[in-house]
Amino acid sequence: MTHEFDTVIRHGTVATASGTMDADVGIRDGRIVALAESLGRGREEIDARHRLVLPGGVDAHCHLDQPVGDGLRMADDFLTGTRSAACGGTTTVIPFAAQARGQSLRAAVADYHARAEGRACVDYAFHLIVADPTPTVVREELPALIDTGYTSFKIYMTYDDLKLDDRQILRLLAVARQHGALAMVHAENADCIAWLTEALEAAGQTAPRHHADARPMVLEREATHRAISLAELVDVPILVVHVSGREAVEQIRWARGRGLRIYAETCPQYLFLTAEDLGHGYEGAKCVCSPPPRDVANQRVIWDGLADGLFTVFSSDHAPFRYEDPQGKKPGGQEVAFRHIPNGIPGLETRLPLLFSEGVRTGRITLEQFVALTATQPARLYGLHPRKGHIAIGADADLAIWDPDRRVTVRNEALHHAVDYTPYEGMTLTGWPTTTLVRGQRVWDHGEFLGRPGDGRFLRCGRPEMARP
Amino acid sequence: MTHEFDTVIRHGTVATASGTMDADVGIRDGRIVALAESLGRGREEIDARHRLVLPGGVDAHCHLDQPVGDGLRMADDFLTGTRSAACGGTTTVIPFAAQARGQSLRAAVADYHARAEGRACVDYAFHLIVADPTPTVVREELPALIDTGYTSFKIYMTYDDLKLDDRQILRLLAVARQHGALAMVHAENADCIAWLTEALEAAGQTAPRHHADARPMVLEREATHRAISLAELVDVPILVVHVSGREAVEQIRWARGRGLRIYAETCPQYLFLTAEDLGHGYEGAKCVCSPPPRDVANQRVIWDGLADGLFTVFSSDHAPFRYEDPQGKKPGGQEVAFRHIPNGIPGLETRLPLLFSEGVRTGRITLEQFVALTATQPARLYGLHPRKGHIAIGADADLAIWDPDRRVTVRNEALHHAVDYTPYEGMTLTGWPTTTLVRGQRVWDHGEFLGRPGDGRFLRCGRPEMARP
Amino acid sequence: MTHEFDTVIRHGTVATASGTMDADVGIRDGRIVALAESLGRGREEIDARHRLVLPGGVDAHCHLDQPVGDGLRMADDFLTGTRSAACGGTTTVIPFAAQARGQSLRAAVADYHARAEGRACVDYAFHLIVADPTPTVVREELPALIDTGYTSFKIYMTYDDLKLDDRQILRLLAVARQHGALAMVHAENADCIAWLTEALEAAGQTAPRHHADARPMVLEREATHRAISLAELVDVPILVVHVSGREAVEQIRWARGRGLRIYAETCPQYLFLTAEDLGHGYEGAKCVCSPPPRDVANQRVIWDGLADGLFTVFSSDHAPFRYEDPQGKKPGGQEVAFRHIPNGIPGLETRLPLLFSEGVRTGRITLEQFVALTATQPARLYGLHPRKGHIAIGADADLAIWDPDRRVTVRNEALHHAVDYTPYEGMTLTGWPTTTLVRGQRVWDHGEFLGRPGDGRFLRCGRPEMARP
Amino acid sequence: MTHEFDTVIRHGTVATASGTMDADVGIRDGRIVALAESLGRGREEIDARHRLVLPGGVDAHCHLDQPVGDGLRMADDFLTGTRSAACGGTTTVIPFAAQARGQSLRAAVADYHARAEGRACVDYAFHLIVADPTPTVVREELPALIDTGYTSFKIYMTYDDLKLDDRQILRLLAVARQHGALAMVHAENADCIAWLTEALEAAGQTAPRHHADARPMVLEREATHRAISLAELVDVPILVVHVSGREAVEQIRWARGRGLRIYAETCPQYLFLTAEDLGHGYEGAKCVCSPPPRDVANQRVIWDGLADGLFTVFSSDHAPFRYEDPQGKKPGGQEVAFRHIPNGIPGLETRLPLLFSEGVRTGRITLEQFVALTATQPARLYGLHPRKGHIAIGADADLAIWDPDRRVTVRNEALHHAVDYTPYEGMTLTGWPTTTLVRGQRVWDHGEFLGRPGDGRFLRCGRPEMARP
Ligand SMILES: [Zn+2]
Ligand SMILES: [Zn+2]
Ligand SMILES: [Zn+2]
Ligand SMILES: [Zn+2]
Ligand SMILES: [Zn+2]
Ligand SMILES: [Zn+2]
Ligand SMILES: [Zn+2]
Ligand SMILES: [Zn+2]
């Protein structure tokens, strides 16, 4: 007996960013080759009755095995990170190849490839982080890398070892414009943070909760306005990453109203955490990330922005550090001043279930918006469309089959990253992926991780259409 | 020999609002039943190589055979109107069943059905126009009609025979909220228009171009702000129709920034015409519509709004009056004062080619945005999704096959409406539909209209998800 | 022995809107004729050591003996009203001559003169209220009255017997523009109020506190935007009276930012009361006024507007009704539904002490701003400058001598109006006028009212410079 | 025969910021001691019939004899600068004592005193320029200087030898807050200027007109927003100096609307020059100043801001360099690239006549606003009130007697500075001061300069009330 397809997913409700349909999905050679009311036999058949068939998530902002110096270490490498992604319905990740000061950008990329090689379980592309925009980097390395599939890079306006001054940013934005890359901006004013940190420390206020006091909204707003202005001067679109609340949102809306193409990303922590979560003794260190979570009123602003199209992409900003770990949230085994706590929280695996449960199920956003924000638009934004993030003929068969009614109480022990906590411990969510396929292969199925290290492939990104000048 | 499909469209590039794919489209019983790299035989085969296969357009704002009183008459009825639509790639129209003062709303609907019956060549739904919100209308007729598939209605803030006062608007918005309908608002301040018209007439300024002087942006802005405020008070989404320029756009952006769901529509006349076009003697009457076209700076604002998601829908506002006609733009055969010129311009057939050529081909918007604005989102907004406006398994096979490279110089003689002019005469456009299918049947094919009066079916609209309170 | 002056006020600190000085003030024939370090003898001498010598207040918005129909009656006529003013440091009042529908405007003015004649204890001018803008009123009466010293008029957007529609407003604004008068606008949307009132009554929510529910901020904002738009269309400045909070303020700021001359007034009730004050059973009726007081956050916005120049004038909007009175807050002796409670609160006498104590003494505004807001700018705005509202050579000797340190607990029994309550009962204030002079004559001195009915003179207002088109 | 007064100015129209009066002004011992309808004899009598008697101007932003390095030299020292001021009706100047990097702030002040000593012809105070905020400066020198009468300082966000980074600015703002000083901010983004300058030079675009291209509005707006944000963080008022147009104005309005105390200054060059004036060959160097003049639309925005209270102060920003001078606009005798042209234009003498003629005479602002903007408010803003900037008993008799009708065509040869050009050459103005008195002494009278070097006294400034935290 012959099989028309390698796999057929039957009777599911297939959702794309523009609609849902009841259809069978036919997969051959890792790609979607047919969508129909009824398809012929597949070698493998998956019953998706009462299930949603969604494009696998594209997590366009996560940090895996990124060198962080100072005796610290990220908990997740490409293996545990992509495993965690797969188990949460995500089939593509775009972590960062970070240049160290003094390092060649090419070398940074080569090093990062070495870290991914043989370990990734889902497909991956790289954003670059340019921390040292020397003439060589600006004129040679960066353009060459853009040409060969590294078409986005992150600019930091804060963090001592990463931050660029305005002139460096202008130079990089000019490269983005000339070569059609997309610049992502981490918008916080470094000097303000330093000044506040100094003041807080002078006052003995060093507990984790003061991390939020050292990074109030006003300094994110300032940096956002500045980034917008620099982009306006260069006449190039940018993406403001991890937008946390009202004042930054207002700047972005204002820029859009003036006809500027300023894109925006937000993350689960700005919907589900508040500064209060940094407040319970040293445990608050678990929620130390930047920008910090704000308050309930700001959460509402972020929800509004997701619903009305302000945000193009919803990412995890997964930056994994173990809590009980001298290389993690307790550097050297100590409860340190907030300034020394490594920034970041885990979120690769919970990103989609959180938004599905609290966004789609509550009616705050539609299922189509969910797909757009978590898969289609990130793929598009970073030049991976139409191969990734979409269910369409010819696309990679990266799919997540969801049980929309399954109730799950989040427990870190049930997650698949290498971090020893989740900030969402104990939340009960409705909806979870039961099966994840990467290029047609099951990597997660009914509670079992089936992926194989090294099966994940590197993706060269095309030039983002949204970055066209 | 058996045929798996009634029709197969082969080798085309299929575009939806969320992406494009190279795929064959299989049609059976008027519906799309398969999308695949390669499909089996169809009884009929259409070669779409080098062609785009798009969802047929949904023109969510047009006026056909609408009684207008005063010895005037719309040039297009359901036959010529839907014929024109089909030849321009549009497969669904939503004209207005307009209540006259003193008339029952049900009677207005019944009358309008009679006008459509046996004449429509593409499918159609009805918006209601409520001009007389009596207690019976508000409490009985309107809720009952919403329940039976008339789920949107237009509120006029101007025109003597249609305009409602704020209290009437509030009552209708409350019905929209309670019954899940979508209110569309024509936002111009009637009193301001009357006052300016009086002043212009007193000064002898009655030429067509003074129509624009009588309706400056400020009064559209005022009415837009007021409509937003009334909607905010009732806590219900609304759609502001035919937004013409910057000041109205700014109000809508401001409302969105405050978390209000204010949707917006715009039309070709605000992209391609300016107030100058009202200015060449009495010929300017051809471009008299309300709100009037503005200027080039305002056109840019509208383009920005299309590109960045401000507008949900792009409609024609086709309101057809013949120029050389005593029942049209020369009432009683006279060149009359602007106040007496019937408002409206034709646009059903040119809507899509104009936006495709000047939007998609120039790169101002993507092909996906084109599909979204002209088909998917209007269908969704008015409760016709997923049946209309989308290419997906199970959807009606309403399709337009486009030659994206065909250059066409717009000539009214080549159009299929019953109007004796087009405001776009002489424009050269790139891209035009070569074939249009309604539920799998060709109605337009390589220059020939093949539709049959009465083949178009009435569509009951579902409750618009965007109108959920 | 001869006297150079009728009166000399010695050793006081004299404050104007632009500074303070230690100076003697010499008065002759009711006017200020000298300011000097040291002046010669006066027939009368007033020791103002440790006292402030301020221009007497100009209360540019108060209602005295205004016919209100329905068996209701204002508690204060020109005698008690101006007496109360004098005892609170106010030396000029500008109440309203209100036209009834069907009445000639001239007749309304004549009637109002009759009410003032022989009773006023301080000087007075009249604003007009145009409730019936017939062609005669618009073309003849109003222009003639403007010419003869009635240069401002109030337009109501609410109240059934006063409200004008937009077209009537446009006509009146055109008169203001043509004849150089200043239009004052009461900005609340009548239809929204009616709709909400109906809904509240249908739900049995008729207690005084629901007065505030029937007039939420959004409808004041809407009317403010509309008034701005109408003024923009006519190209004429306007004054928005009794602005109550953030959303209206934002509209006014927005208009100013666009170069429009939109002036604004606020009143004590928006600084010192909140909607809570309407909430204690029927006693809340004492604080029923329109717009209603808002909340503490809105109070802060009003304070900011006073401090930064948004507001040009601070008035009482004194609209006096007795509480225990069948002609007052208990119509016919009943506790009625909020809709039937006469709108208004008393405030002529407390206006200045409230702002002085909580504004100047706390440092929220400067003494110069206090003088500007309460005396100089109102006089200027309504064409009474330089005669009133200022301490300068040649100006009327209308002066209030303040003890800036005197602590007074507000008790209605100590006030001089004819109302049986004050909303500020029990507040302890710092600073109170000890002596008030009108054209050099003491009318209030150390707790004694010395004014004489009929001594107050009618003032013809010049054309307001701020209303110049 | 005895004289009651040293000087009496008779029959003039005396104007203050809050009104005008017909009054004689009596002066004794250099102070105003009487204002009256008619005063006794003065040893000296000045007939001011048909004349305006105004407070002498306070020019709160000018540069005199300020070391500029690089072989350049300012054309005006304290003698020629204050002479020019006096002849233009200005009686107080506040130039800058500028710290060089590495220099003690005290030393800078001492040096600057030496430059003024024996040369100033009108009274003067000093702003500080802090270019090197070392711990000593921040903790000791600056607080001590504030305590002894140097209560304002300028922060530069641009110019290589002056600019501070955000952290330095924060430290200085904290000093301002703690010690009650007023920080003035020059808001242009240095990095943007450098980047644009580099690009322009690379393209060979070095003519003076490219100075404007290197400093577009967007970078002034960015720096303005940033300055506002830093002030907001520290919670301290600031003054944004020399605001040039719409985008910066919008930021300031936005900040005010949020309750922040952001004050603003503008200058004649933003009302009377445009970028075009930099465009006529090398002569454009005469108008090279920063920010550069913009265009006519921006001029209107500045006029609106003067009329509606946005601006607190109108200064000259006199920064005098000779055109035909190797130490001036042609460094080393060469026509240099715009980057090397010293920034600044002369304006001390023309500031008041320009604003009087084009502001007061045209009706754009009132005479009272003129006085406020040019004298009263600058004095107040910098702690010189009530001694300076006001006509009041006890104030210094610093007066300018104006012939409001005198028509003067501006000719540099008729001015009294040491610069060899004026940007306003050839403009015909209406109104000019005929006589200027400093502390009662004539320094300018009917075309003759009568001042004596050294008569001008140093003024210790009080703590600015507007800078109260
Ligand atoms: Zn980041
Ligand atoms: Zn990150
Ligand atoms: Zn319409
Ligand atoms: Zn229409
Ligand atoms: Zn009112
Ligand atoms: Zn009132
Ligand atoms: Zn400067
Ligand atoms: Zn300067």
Structure description:
The structure is a homotetramer of 469-residue chains. Chain A folds into two domains: 5-55 and 388-449, Urease, subunit C, domain 1; 57-378, Metal-dependent hydrolases (TIM Barrel, Alpha-Beta Barrel). Chain A is 29% helix and 22% strand. By secondary structure, chain A is α/β, with parallel strands linked by helices. In chain A, strands 1, 2, 3, 4, 5, 16, 17, 18 and 19 form a nine-stranded mixed sheet that branches. In chain A, helix 3 packs parallel to helix 4 (166-179), helix 4 packs across helix 7 and helix 7 packs parallel to helix 8 (246-257). Chain A is built from twelve helices and 19 strands. Chains in contact: A-B, A-D, B-C, C-D. The interface between A and B is large, with 43 and 43 residues. Strand 3 of chain A pairs antiparallel with strand 3 of chain B. The complex binds zinc ion (8 copies).
List the helices and strands and how they pair.
Four copies of one chain form a homotetramer.
Chain A: E1 5-16, E2 19-28, E3 31-36, E4 42-47, E5 52-55, E6 57-59, H1 78-87, E7 90-93, E8 96-98, H2 105-116, E9 123-124, E10 127-129, H3 135-147, E11 152-156, H4 166-179, E12 182-186, H5 190-202, H6 210-213, H7 217-234, E13 238-240, H8 246-257, E14 262-266, H9 269-272, H10 296-308, E15 313-314, H11 351-360, H12 367-381, E16 399-409, E17 428-438, E18 441-445, E19 448-449
Parallel strand pairs in A: 1-4, 1-5, 6-7, 7-9, 8-10, 10-11, 11-12, 12-13, 13-14, 14-15
Antiparallel strand pairs in A: 1-2, 2-3, 5-16, 16-17, 17-18, 18-19
Helix pairs in contact in A: 3-4, 4-7, 7-8
